[in-house]
């Protein structure tokens, strides 16, 4: 009974971090001398953010603005699980270069316990984020990873979780100049705060926030950024502050008389998270190989996505696709398939949460097998949404593999679920063969 109360108290206690979503943070309570002492703020905020997602869906349902799309929601969450798994395993390894520069090459010692250092860091990190984000759109090599975040044809809070697995390994380079004067503990904290703030601005239920719009990035501004209409391209890169866009000429106002079309200019017809993570990289390499000379082959990687030989680095608007309407990719699924996907995605989410628990050793071979099973499950769920002809046999193989390798690390109910799933797919395959 006490454990039950403690669990409920822990869940409700998670709401106390809700202010972090809006950068409402007490600097005196979040200043640390050592970077190792900085909490995992992203972990702390997840419960509050998922409550916000539920609230957004309730508002949309009540207003009857549009229907809920399971395939798009699950795909965005699949990218989040893959990205978060990498973040948990590597435990901030990308910060090591920053820490090394600060320890050996810093030119100015800002006091770690000064509130002024806290505010300077907040502004400096956001300034760097503007250039990180702008580069991710204006350099094809970086865009090949960042495009994952823009691949949804919807715009909602869950899209904020749709991230590239590899993007942060490239982006962290833009923050390294801060290591010459900003303590690592401050940087690690504000790097998290900056990204957390950007979660809530992925929504259509908030329209205009008045004077707030002049200074801060808001859903209104970020809707433009996510649009593939011609006027939306390469605009509104700011993280927390929209002032950077106003200052550097990349700001665009939302047009009331033009519906924003979300997604990539040429959007992939797939919900397979692995495909969505890598297809643009393959396209980029193919595009480079197709160029007529070595100079252009290399230029493909560092010039913009719309560049062509003879054009400016970012291309010209007259040669860009102007998307004005789109039929969303939405293959129909049977009710039993939707139920199956929800069930197995819930199992993936359950085992993913175990990664956050200290006793769950990520280096253990069984833990590694669990991570592989989760990744395979998310990929096959995407194939099911795509109605791939290979999805049923691949899912049968995955479920059988789970029963063989992993049945001893989960409770019996999960094992029975996988056993029943095997029977279901055997029946489905034989049913298909009988008709074929």
Automatic annotation (TrEMBL):
The keyword Endoplasmic reticulum applies. Keywords: Endoplasmic reticulum, Iron, Lipid metabolism, Membrane, Oxidoreductase, Transmembrane, Transmembrane helix. Signal peptide: none annotated. Its EC number is 1.14.16.5. GO terms for molecular function: glyceryl-ether monooxygenase activity; iron ion binding. Its cofactor is Fe cation. It is found in: Endoplasmic reticulum membrane. It comes from the Eukaryota. It is a multi-pass membrane protein. The keyword Membrane applies. The chain crosses the membrane at residues 7-25, 45-62, 115-132, 165-182, 336-353, 365-385. Residues 338-407 form the Alkylglycerol monooxygenase C-terminal domain. Pfam families: AGMP_C, FA_hydroxylase. It catalyses: 1-O-(1,2-saturated-alkyl)-sn-glycerol + (6R)-L-erythro-5,6,7,8-tetrahydrobiopterin + O2 = a 1-(1-hydroxyalkyl)-sn-glycerol + (6R)-L-erythro-6,7-dihydrobiopterin + H2O. Belongs to the sterol desaturase family. TMEM195 subfamily. This is Alkylglycerol monooxygenase. It comes from Ceratosolen solmsi marchali. The lineage of its organism: Eukaryota, Metazoa, Ecdysozoa, Arthropoda, Hexapoda.
């Amino acid at each position: 009974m006490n454990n039950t109360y403690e669990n409920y108290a822990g869940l409700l206690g998670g709401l106390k971090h809700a202010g972090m979503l809006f950068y409402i943070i007490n600097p005196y309570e979040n200043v640390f001398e050592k970077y190792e002492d900085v909490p995992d703020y992203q972990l702390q905020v997840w419960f509050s953010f998922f409550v916000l997602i539920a609230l957004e869906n309730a508002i949309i349902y009540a207003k009857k603005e549009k229907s809920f799309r399971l395939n798009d929601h699950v795909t965005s969450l699949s990218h989040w699980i893959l990205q978060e798994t990498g973040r948990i395993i590597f435990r901030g390894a990308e910060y090591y270069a920053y820490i090394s520069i600060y320890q050996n090459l810093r030119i100015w010692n800002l006091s770690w316990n000064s509130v002024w250092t806290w505010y300077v860091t907040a502004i400096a990190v956001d300034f760097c984020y503007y250039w990180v984000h702008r580069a991710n759109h204006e350099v094809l090599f970086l865009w090949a990873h960042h495009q994952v975040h823009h691949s949804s044809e919807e715009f909602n809070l869950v899209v904020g979780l749709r991230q590239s697995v590899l993007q942060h390994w490239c982006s962290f380079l833009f923050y390294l100049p801060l290591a010459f004067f900003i303590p690592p503990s401050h940087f690690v904290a504000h790097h998290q705060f900056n990204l957390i703030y950007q979660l809530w601005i992925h929504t259509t239920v908030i329209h205009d926030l008045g004077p707030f719009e002049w200074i801060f990035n808001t859903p209104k501004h970020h809707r433009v950024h996510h649009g593939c209409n011609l006027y939306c391209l390469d605009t509104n890169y700011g993280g927390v502050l929209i002032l950077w866009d106003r200052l550097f000429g990349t700001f665009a106002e939302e047009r009331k008389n033009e519906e924003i079309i979300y997604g990539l200019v040429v959007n992939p017809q797939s919900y397979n998270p692995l495909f969505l993570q890598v297809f643009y990289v393959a396209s980029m390499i193919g595009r480079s190989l197709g160029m007529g000379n070595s100079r252009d082959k290399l230029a493909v990687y560092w010039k913009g996505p719309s560049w062509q030989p003879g054009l400016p680095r970012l291309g010209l608007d007259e040669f860009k696709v102007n998307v004005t309407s789109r039929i969303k990719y939405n293959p129909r699924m049977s009710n039993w398939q939707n139920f199956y996907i929800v069930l197995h995605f819930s199992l993936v989410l359950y085992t993913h949460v175990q990664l956050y628990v200290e006793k769950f050793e990520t280096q253990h071979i069984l833990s590694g097998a669990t991570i592989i099973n989760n990744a395979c499950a998310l990929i096959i769920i995407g194939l099911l949404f795509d109605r791939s002809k290979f999805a049923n046999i691949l899912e049968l193989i995955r479920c059988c593999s789970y029963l063989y390798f992993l049945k001893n690390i989960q409770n019996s109910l999960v094992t029975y679920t996988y056993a029943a799933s095997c029977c279901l797919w055997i029946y489905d395959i034989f049913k298909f063969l009988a008709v074929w």
